[in-house]
């Protein structure tokens, strides 16, 4: 068995050797064409990637987009209007004491950046998405949110304190509870915001001359960004959108004022997963014993390790705990888990992403958030995927025989389309797949785009194997190189023309080996490979063929330079060729020609195999191009080559070196 996987360039991605053959596989998001090549799949051509609004293809993947003011659903395909508020800001006042707490029910993110800075965010920011591709009809816009979110930013300084997120001391926890009961309602007793980002940064002040005497003073800066959404349903006759915006802005501003006071009085808390955390620690307080790791980490074998996916940091035990049922956590080192869309406490413990949440709608069903309870797709619609918020209409007034249809094939079309066609719902006819696309199945309403930069020769293609790369292949080096037909080892495309020029360095000649060449056997020579001195038809020709030859042949070029041309007709196609060449020192011309013209070189099967063996040809060419490299192979060649072949070469070489003996 020859291990083809040990050759250069056998497969684009992954190669698996099998007895007598080999197989190529592609990475996820790519598909195989031309037997060994991998091209990016354009998922957007397959039913718009299943996206509700727009689809953008990326190498190895794709992304769904949503219209402005909408967010991408957790299933990464549907679009939803407003997201329920995730962060609640509670402030109350007792006498002169302001205390505020930011509670994060879900979507909390903790990112320690250095010893003295970190970022905490809560909720999901409203994305403004531009550049959509392949948008659907505009009726699917998100009508719930017509307005931009209100954004506010505030920055506070705390003197003599260092950024340090830590669980609040136990004694203080109860005290906070009491204060909350007595406290009167502050300007923003319960502000709900869609997104909060808090950054804490302590950096030593070391600017200018005065800094010398106060080198131990630290200034901690806390920067808060808020995004609040306006709910159009709250617009009333007495208060229009503009008035509503002002009202929310005013609320936010007064909340920020209360916050500033509470931060200065060190009465600001963050609440994650039922634990209260303080954002900074006074320098006067002795640092706690060093055994414990920071928030989001636990001690394992003497090292601090971030809590893994599917777990969160439990402030009281200072350990990582698996996410309880009904929650999940995709990121490492977090202080809480995110809630599943359905607030029920079912599902596995320690789920690492939202697909671990139980109760997703099966194919053929849908619900607002993709979770149970689900409704079957109404008649005239279908849904092939799990956890979706909508069903796709058949279009063109077509219906389905029953509710809960799974694919377009369940729609009652007027005609049944065969592979290579798609059903057009506006004219109710089967249309041939355009050039560059294919469809292997019956009764589909789309054609799949060819992978990577390939295309088809004709319309109506039924298989990805009809997708071909039209680029002329090869590498042209000064000493060694090769030329190959486009899409090799797959069949070459129709109507292509390739030209290569081999231009050796001074005092060097060209030797070519054609291991095998596959061209269609026709009478009228449709596909031709020719090697000449230059493009002029009357120039010296070294080689010309329009037929298949499975027996190898080696020859020297009849001119110093070579112009090589390959031209195909629109008729049949075949595998084509991969032809290596080497340039050698002209002093050896007599010897090389003597060898390649000797019939014994091609007489036995054994010798023919040598000229087809990529590794042996590489070794030969290496020695022909640089004779001193012969010494690399002196021991190996006995195992590599049959004795009859070495005998043939030895007689040629000795007579070349000692002509007068």
From TrEMBL:
Keywords (A to Z) from UniProt: Disulfide bond, EGF-like domain, Repeat, Signal
Disulphide-bridged cysteine pairs: 5-15
Keyword Signal: yes
Any one of the GO CC terms: cell surface
GO BP: signal transduction
Annotated PROSITE patterns: ASX_HYDROXYL, CUB, EGF_2, EGF_3, EGF_CA
Any one GO MF annotation of this record: calcium ion binding
Boundaries of every EGF-like domain copy: 1-39
UniProt cross-references to InterPro entries, sorted A to Z: CUB_dom (IPR000859), EGF (IPR000742), EGF-like_Ca-bd_dom (IPR001881), EGF-type_Asp/Asn_hydroxyl_site (IPR000152), EGF_Ca-bd_CS (IPR018097), Growth_fac_rcpt_cys_sf (IPR009030), NOTCH1_EGF-like (IPR049883), SCUB_EGF-like_domain (IPR052071)
Protein name (database record): SCUB3 protein
Species of provenance: Alca torda (Razorbill)
Lineage of the organism: Eukaryota, Metazoa, Chordata, Craniata, Vertebrata
């Amino acid at each position: 068995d020859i291990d083809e996987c040990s050759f250069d360039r056998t497969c684009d991605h992954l190669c698996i050797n099998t007895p007598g053959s080999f197989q190529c596989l592609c990475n996820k998001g790519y598909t195989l064409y031309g037997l060994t090549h991998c091209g990016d799949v354009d998922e957007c051509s397959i039913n718009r990637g299943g996206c509700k609004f727009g689809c953008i293809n990326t190498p190895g993947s794709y992304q769904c987009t949503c219209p402005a003011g909408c967010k991408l659903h957790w299933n990464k395909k549907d679009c939803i209007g407003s997201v329920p508020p995730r962060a609640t800001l509670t402030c109350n006042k007792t006498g002169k004491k302001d205390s505020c707490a930011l509670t994060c029910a879900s979507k909390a993110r903790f990112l320690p950046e250095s010893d003295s800075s970190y970022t905490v965010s809560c909720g999901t920011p409203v994305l403004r998405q531009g550049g959509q591709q392949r948008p659907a009809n505009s009726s699917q816009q998100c009508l719930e949110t017509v307005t931009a979110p209100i954004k506010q930013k505030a920055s506070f300084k705390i003197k003599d304190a260092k950024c340090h997120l830590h669980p609040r001391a136990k004694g203080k926890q109860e005290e906070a509870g009491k204060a909350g009961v007595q406290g009167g309602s502050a300007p923003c007793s319960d502000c709900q915001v869609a997104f909060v980002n808090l950054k804490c940064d302590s950096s030593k002040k070391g600017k200018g001359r005065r800094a010398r005497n106060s080198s131990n003073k630290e200034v901690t800066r806390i920067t808060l960004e808020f995004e609040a959404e306006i709910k159009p349903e709250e617009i009333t006759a007495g208060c229009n959108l503009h008035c509503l915006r002002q009202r929310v802005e005013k609320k936010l501003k007064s909340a920020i004022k209360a916050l500033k006071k509470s931060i200065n009085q060190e009465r600001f808390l963050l609440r994650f997963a039922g634990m209260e955390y303080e954002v900074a620690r006074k320098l006067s307080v002795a640092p706690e014993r060093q055994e414990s790791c920071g928030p989001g980490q636990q001690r394992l074998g003497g090292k601090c390790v971030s809590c893994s996916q599917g777990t969160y940091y439990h402030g009281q035990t200072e350990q990582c705990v698996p996410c309880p049922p009904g929650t999940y956590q995709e990121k490492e080192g977090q202080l809480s888990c995110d809630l599943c869309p359905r607030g029920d406490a079912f599902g596995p413990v320690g789920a690492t992403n939202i697909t671990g949440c139980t109760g997703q709608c099966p194919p053929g069903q849908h619900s607002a958030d993709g979770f149970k309870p689900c409704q079957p797709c109404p008649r005239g619609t279908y849904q092939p995927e799990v956890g979706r918020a909508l069903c796709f209409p058949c279009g063109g007034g077509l219906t389905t025989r029953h509710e809960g249809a799974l694919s377009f094939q369940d729609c009652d079309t007027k005609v049944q389309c065969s592979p290579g066609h798609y059903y057009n719902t506006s004219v109710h006819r089967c249309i041939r797949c355009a050039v560059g696309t294919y469809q292997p199945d019956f009764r589909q309403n789309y054609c799949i785009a060819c992978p990577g930069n390939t295309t088809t020769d004709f319309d109506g293609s039924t298989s990805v194997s009809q997708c071909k790369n039209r680029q002329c292949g090869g590498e042209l080096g000064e000493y060694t190189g090769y030329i190959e037909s486009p899409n090799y080892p797959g069949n070459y495309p129709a109507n292509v023309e390739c030209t290569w020029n081999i231009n050796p360095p001074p005092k060097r000649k060209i030797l070519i080996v054609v291991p095998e060449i596959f061209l269609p056997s026709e009478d009228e020579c449709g596909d031709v490979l020719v090697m000449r001195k230059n493009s002029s038809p009357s120039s010296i020709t070294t080689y010309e063929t329009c037929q298949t030859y499975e027996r190898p042949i080696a020859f020297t070029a009849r001119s110093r330079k070579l112009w090589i041309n390959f031209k195909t007709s629109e008729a049949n196609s075949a595998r084509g060729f991969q032809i290596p060449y080497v340039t050698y020192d002209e002093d050896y011309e007599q010897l090389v020609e003597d060898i390649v013209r000797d019939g014994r070189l091609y007489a036995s099967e054994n010798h023919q195999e040598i000229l087809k063996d990529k590794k042996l040809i590489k070794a030969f060419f290496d020695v022909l191009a640089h004779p001193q490299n012969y010494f690399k192979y002196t021991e190996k060649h006995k195992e590599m080559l049959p004795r009859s072949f070495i005998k043939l070469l030895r007689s040629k070489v000795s007579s070349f070196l000692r002509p007068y003996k």
